[in-house]
Amino acid sequence: MQDEAGAPLTGADPTPSPAPDPSPEGRSRLRALLLTIAAVVLVLDQGTKAWALARLTPGEPVDLVGSAIRLNLIRNPGAAFSLGDGSTWVLTLVSLVILGWVLVAVRRVDNRGWAIPLGLLLGGAVGNLVDRLVREPGPGRGHVVDFIDYFGWFVGNVADIAIVVAAGVVMVLAYRGVPLGSRRDAEHGAEPADG
């Protein structure tokens, strides 16, 4: 019960958001973290896709966890759940817009809470965009290599995992009201000078 009138029933938020570090050095460190995460996701994504193309045969799934999780090689011209099969160019443009938004957001990041999911999102978006740009049937129309089959519902890849995890973290951050950048950036629309 409340000890005094007007006091909240619970204490302060038990999991405070990471303290922002808007200094040029702090932002540089956060950008380095973000770009390192993106690079690791990209390397893992493209490496596992190369492995899947070399080791798996389309139409011949390999059980990992019974038939619940399988390795099942497909080349996906569409988006998640094979939506938009005939709209590969549109999906490429959407990927470029998302990539542009992330690159703009990178300039404002001043806390680790946002740096991590943006790194995951950047790495995943670039991983699937690489497929769209360099794989058959041609630039901008390339099919994404998917090979992780979840319960027969959909087939994805490492980039998709990174994107889904990033989306979940972003939703939590947005729900908790954790700002992407400092209040000064938001109020003035200005980017502090990097040192």
Automatic annotation (TrEMBL):
Positions of region (Disordered): 1-26
Molecular function GO labels: aspartic-type endopeptidase activity
EC numbers: 3.4.23.36
Keyword tags: Aspartyl protease, Cell membrane, Hydrolase, Membrane, Protease, Transmembrane, Transmembrane helix
Pathway: Protein modification; lipoprotein biosynthesis (signal peptide cleavage)
Subcellular location: Cell membrane
Topology in membrane: Multi-pass membrane protein
Keyword Ubl conjugation: no
Pfam families assigned to the protein according to its UniProt record, in alphabetical order: Peptidase_A8
PROSITE patterns: SPASE_II (PS00855)
Catalytic residue list: 146, 160
Catalyzed reaction equations: Release of signal peptides from bacterial membrane prolipoproteins. Hydrolyzes -Xaa-Yaa-Zaa-|-(S,diacylglyceryl)Cys-, in which Xaa is hydrophobic (preferably Leu), and Yaa (Ala or Ser) and Zaa (Gly or Ala) have small, neutral side chains
Major localisation: membrane
Transmembrane region(s): 86-106, 113-130, 150-175
Family assignment from sequence similarity: Belongs to the peptidase A8 family.
Role noted for this protein: This protein specifically catalyzes the removal of signal peptides from prolipoproteins.
Protein name: Lipoprotein signal peptidase
The species this protein was found in: Phycicoccus sonneratiae
Gene name in the database record: lspA
